Amino acid sequence: MIKCVILDDELLAISYLKLLCETIENVEVIKVFNDPKIFLREINHLDCNLCILDIEMPGMTGLQVAELIPDSKKIIFTTAYKEYAADAFDLNVVDYVRKPIKKERLIQAFEKAQQLLIYQQKKDCIEWNTNIGKSTILTEQIAYIKTSEIDSRDKDIIMKDGAIIVLKNLSFKSLLDMLPSKDFAQVNKKEIIAISSIRVISTNEVITSIASENGNFLKLQIGETYKTHLAEIFNK
């Protein structure tokens, strides 16, 4: 069951979206808000797993609100403005739905949210749209993940046998939620490594067991933001 809350500064938009949600199976609207500050005061105390946020609001945008929401609660953005898409995707966002919202499009967003919520509990595989269609990938077979050079919204998964699978339209934040945290670590803004693929780790660099194009082993630079977390993993 998806238990959602709605935040939008326009009361008519709230009423319409709430009515739309109530016609969709396995979706329950817990509470609605038209003030971001009240929303942030209450969100940690509500039994919900999904937040539907309008982006354009006076005083505080949905993007700013999203940065203050716990990762355990998934986010769907709604907006009439397409120029926010790139910024929205960088956050822990399930989907970005353009207004006026259509029921069929909202159902698609809820289905993506449902997948991610399931993976929070069961993380031995990933099921997602890929370059070869909808695929199930065993996480134990993943060696390395990087942002696609063709489209930054996509992620290239390098399997332990060298095969490459492209996950379509998925942020690193959402992807990390789908992976077992004890087995994977983000190294920098564009790369995630399986712990089993690490041979040597230093202050600034990870040397992997993955062969690179020049015949050596692949080396990854550790971003400043991720050094503390990597140190904690290996100092346990």
From TrEMBL:
In-chain residues carrying the UniProt-annotated modification 4-aspartylphosphate: D54
Pfam family, one: Response_reg
Keywords: DNA-binding, Phosphoprotein
Presence of keyword Flavoprotein: no
InterPro entries: CheY-like_superfamily, LytTR_DNA-bd_dom, Sig_transdc_resp-reg_receiver, WalR-like
The keyword Acyltransferase is assigned to this record: no
Domain Response regulatory: 3-114
An annotated Gene Ontology molecular function: DNA binding
Protein name: DNA-binding response regulator, LytR/AlgR family
Organism in which the protein naturally occurs: Chryseobacterium taihuense
